Structures are given as structure tokens and as C-alpha cells.
Amino acid sequence: xxQASHCDNCTLCQHKLCARRVPIFQELNQDExxxxxxxIIRKKYSKGEMIVFEDGxxxxxxxINRGQVKAFRDTQEGKEQILxxxxxxxxxGEKNLLIxxxxxxxxxxLEETLICMIQSRDFLKLLKEYPEISLKIVEQLSHxxxxxxxxxxxxxxxxxxxxxxxxxxxxAMKYGKEQSEGVLIELPLSREGIANYIGVARETVSRKLxxxxxxxxxxxIGNKKVVILDKKALENEVE
Amino acid sequence: xxQASHCDNCTLCQHKLCARRVPIFQELNQDExxxxxxxIIRKKYSKGEMIVFEDGxxxxxxxINRGQVKAFRDTQEGKEQILxxxxxxxxxGEKNLLIxxxxxxxxxxLEETLICMIQSRDFLKLLKEYPEISLKIVEQLSHxxxxxxxxxxxxxxxxxxxxxxxxxxxxAMKYGKEQSEGVLIELPLSREGIANYIGVARETVSRKLxxxxxxxxxxxIGNKKVVILDKKALENEVE
DNA sequence: CGTTCGATTGATGTCAGTCAACCCGAGTGG
DNA sequence: CCACTCGGGTTGACTGACATCAATCGAACG
Lengths: 239, 239
Fold this sequence. Notes:
Two copies of one chain form a homodimer.
Chain A: H1 2-7, H2 12-21, H3 30-38, E1 41-45, E2 50-52, E3 60-66, E4 69-74, E5 80-86, E6 91-92, H4 95-98, E7 106-109, E8 113-119, H5 120-129, H6 132-156, H7 160-175, E9 177-178, E10 183-186, H8 191-198, H9 202-214, E11 218-221, E12 225-228, H10 231-238
Antiparallel strand pairs in A: 1-8, 2-7, 3-6, 3-8, 4-5, 4-7, 9-10, 10-12, 11-12
Helix pairs in contact in A: 2-3, 7-10, 8-9
The structure holds a DNA duplex.
């Protein structure tokens, strides 16, 4: 009874935390939040588990409570094109709120992940009741569009070192911890994952990272960690 | 007095048309629409004229009434990365509704273009009054995200013929006219434009189009028109 | 200690970018 | 009316960078 044992520390208060953590519910007061919390269904996924299949049905708004996931599609060549890394507080499935349609990408847990789900029809009722949530969603979608546009600009450039640098900077922003020597990054993706994120071969990622290390711009610690020693240099690379 | 002469046929009824044409105002009734129309400022741009500068201020929602524009950013290599072709009924500047920030791309008129503008602060008031507009915006933004995700998937593939094919199919969907031999497309972009759209060299676009013509899949008529003879073949190319 | 999976490094081939020449049609001006 | 020019498009030759294939390494884990 893993589910049960988990639920020992998954009290109502935890649920609230989940809802509170999400930007789109920020403006709600405690009562309203309680209302939201009642609609939430929680589910746990283990590393490598598929959460959503492209072309599968998806009729809920999915909010990451803990852990992280990757959203990806298959390219022609049979590789994955990773579109998003979603972490705590991020959500997906918003496309299916208004129109019932198939999911437009696969979603897979990168580690043990807790998902809070709200059925689309419930969520729509929420929106009717609290219109300010809509504005929050517009805001979040705008940010996502920003990111996608940035990503396209990146993939448009032929300069592969720039793409690798951009990814490092993105991860630094999202996962970086300031340290004396520089910013320490716990990489959410393997080399292959990074490759699939920026659309190159995994060997190329290896090579580019090695070069950056030789140049003294980064320092790799094992496979999963990187320290950015010279952030300026990376930024110059990107622009 | 170009402005004045233009306004001869730019009556209130025209304004309404402009508003009515836009998906986000679809649900409004006549009275509500009249309210919206009062807020609209119109402006005309000639071919090649810049409408918005990246890093410039943009404090209005911009709706295309007539004509079409390209939205683009500069890549590292000094080329343009075209992000969108906006046509009648499309809008941009929605990112600046909630947060005042700089525009994130240049926008340039591809032909003589009429723009309807609504100041962000006015538009926000509208949203408060007619919350259903928010939902429409969420819907539109979702579509845009779909397109961007599609585009990224496309740019992730190394197969350039697939990219060219995808663009042709996209244009066919948007601008295509059914004919006996196939779908006739009036290209909105030059070869260089197409190249900047899919992130390749302009010569490469030329070459790929020539190949597609040799294979009997398309038929080029001058530089500005293409007939798709074998749509299936293009679709196979893409997937 | 061995196995396995991911990462690295090296060698080779391929394909798109680049440079350059040329073409073509639309203006333009004599 | 024709010659010239100019911008965009096409075509060819060459080059270089990345993909691919293959071998090896190395760390994690049983």
C-alpha cells in the first residue's frame, strides 16, 4: 500500500501547499484555495514512467507538485525533440481546457514526481467563478511563448556552441546554485537529453562541453553536475 | 491628406468589421462590440515599414485588419529569424497587456497593412468587463503555442527537405486556393524570407524547391506562386 | 569484481553553407 | 524603343562542420 503510506504525510495542508505554490492560484484567498483543493486528484509517478502519451487523451490540468518531467515529441529521425522541462509549480494540459483534443506531446517523469490534477470541466467552473485566474493563465502562457520564441531563435542559429551555451544558461537560471567559484548546476538531462533538447547529436554535446571545459568556462563534475566559471563568456557566446 | 481620404471608406461599420473579424471578440454582442470599437485606433503602414521594434515600447494590442506582417528577431549571424506571419484577424502585443515590457521581436509590414490598436489599459478594462474574452485569448494563445511547438519540432530535424515541405503545407493551409491541378499558393515571403523562416540559407531553399519541382511534386509559377501537385508526397516528407 | 549504461574520443562521410557566376524580369532613362 | 541597371533567383564548385560509426573509457550498481 504505497499509496496509503504516502498519504500519511499528504494531508489537506499539503494539498494547499500544492495549490499555493502554483502561480495561477496566487491571487486566491484561503477560502477560495480550499475550494480549489477539493477538486485536486493527486498521483505519483516513478522515474521513467510515462505520464501522458502524445495522441492520448488528456482531460485535466496537470500541475507538478514535486519532481520534474520532460515533454517531448518524436522527430522524423526517430529521436526525441524535447520541448519542455517542467518542474515544481509548472503546469501542462492547459491546451485541453477549452477544446477536448489529444495531447500534443509525450510527458515522462525524469524522477519521482507528484502530480496534482484538476479535471478540465472542474477547472472551467473555477475559471467562471474566479475570472482572475484566467488572467494568470494568460500571463503564464505568455511566458511560455517567450521561451518558445527564444528557443526557436536559438535553433535557427547554426552556431552549435551558442546553443549549448544557451542551454547551460537556461539551466543555471532555473536550477543554478550560487557558489564561490561560480554557479553550480545539477543537470536535469543526460547528454542525450541535452542533445534532444537542442537538436544535435549526443556526441556533439560531449565535444562542445569538453571544449568549454578546456577553455576554462565551465567545470564538469561527473556527468550530472556542471559549474559555470565564466558566465560572461557563455553570454557572449549566445549573443 | 492620405489619412483623411482613407477615412472616407473607414466608417464605424468598417471598425466593427475589424472587431468582428477577430476571434477574441467573437462572443460579444452588438452593444458590447460597439464599446470595443470606440477604443480602437487605426493606423496604416506601407510595405516594408517597421511597425514595432524589438526592445521598443509596445503598449497596445495590435490587430491586423488588412494586409500581412512578419515578426522576426535577429540571429547571431545577423540574419532574421522569422517567427510569425500575421494576417487578417491575427493579433500581437498580447504579452504587453499584463506586464509593461519591451516588444520581443521586430514587426514589419509585408504589404500595405491596416492595424487596429487598443491601448493595453483600455483592453484590460475590457477584460474585467467581459471575462469571456480572457478565455478566447487563452484559446488563441494555445493555438500559437501549438504552432511554435510544431515549428521547434521542425527545426529539430536535420532533414531540410522536410522543413521546406512543412512550410509549403503551412502556406497551403493558410493561403492556398484549391484548383483543378492542385493547391495554388501565393507566397507571402521571398526565397530569402522562407530561408529565414526555417533557418537555412536562401540558396538551399532554391535548390530544394527545384528538386521538388523536378520530382513533379510542386510547380513553380514565377517567383511568387507555387502549385502543390502532390500534397501526399509533401506530407510523407514531413512525417 | 564483473556487468551495464552513459560518456568520451577518434576517424570518416555527407550535406548544407559559402562564394561566385549567371540568369531573368522589371523598371528606368536616354 | 532599346540599353542599362538592379534585385531576386538559380546553379555550380568547394569547404567545413556535424552526423555517424566504432572503439574505449569509466562510474554506478549489484
